[in-house]
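step=encode ok
step=design start
structure_in=
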């Protein structure tokens, strides 16, 4: 029998003998390349999963801790981004598959859930929107190129002086706008 690349992340809900279940995963570069999602390229993340069944609802608690590599928004080099979160997912058995917020309904005839994508999503949600190296850690060659094209404060001040001459011509308003302003002022 050939195993799929995410078979290790399947949880058999119908086969749970106790009302609790726990397991651990160590996610490495292989996991992130298999998941083939754009946000995280590689990493080393430890996931502790605890499942507790109460009143027909399975409560999955994911404790995630580790480091992933993401692309720096400034220099485009890979950078380490720590991730650490505790996330809860509620699952219950039903007729059809449905995701609604933090509740997932799994068809009862299947009776199992693959948590690989949920783990990836929890990791991706823990990554800040802006990922930038610490000061001085960015790729020097790329920073040099960026600095060529960025405006400096002195450039902005010179630009403002140049624009002050233009502001006189911009202050002249089309007379039609003055007539429209009268209408607004009268109301």
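sequence_out=
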């Amino acid at each position: 029998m050939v195993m799929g690349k995410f078979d290790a992340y399947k949880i058999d809900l119908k086969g749970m003998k106790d009302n609790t279940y726990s397991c651990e995963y160590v996610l490495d570069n292989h996991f992130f390349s298999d998941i083939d999602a754009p946000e995280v390229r590689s990493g080393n993340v430890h996931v502790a999963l605890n499942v507790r069944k109460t009143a027909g609802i399975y409560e999955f608690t994911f404790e995630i801790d580790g480091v992933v590599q993401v692309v720096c928004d400034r220099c485009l080099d890979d950078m380490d981004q720590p991730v650490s979160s505790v996330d809860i997912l509620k699952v219950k058995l039903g007729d059809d598959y449905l995701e609604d917020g933090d509740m997932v309904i799994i068809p009862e005839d299947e009776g199992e859930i693959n948590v690989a994508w949920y783990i990836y999503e929890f990791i991706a949600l823990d990554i800040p929107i802006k990922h930038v190296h610490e000061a001085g850690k960015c790729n020097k060659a790329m920073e040099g190129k960026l600095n060529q094209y960025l405006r400096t404060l002195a450039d902005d001040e010179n630009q403002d002086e140049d624009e002050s001459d233009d502001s006189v011509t911009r202050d002249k308003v089309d007379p039609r706008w003055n007539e429209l302003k009268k209408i607004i002022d009268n109301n």
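step=design ok
step=annotate ok -> Residues 140-186 form one domain.
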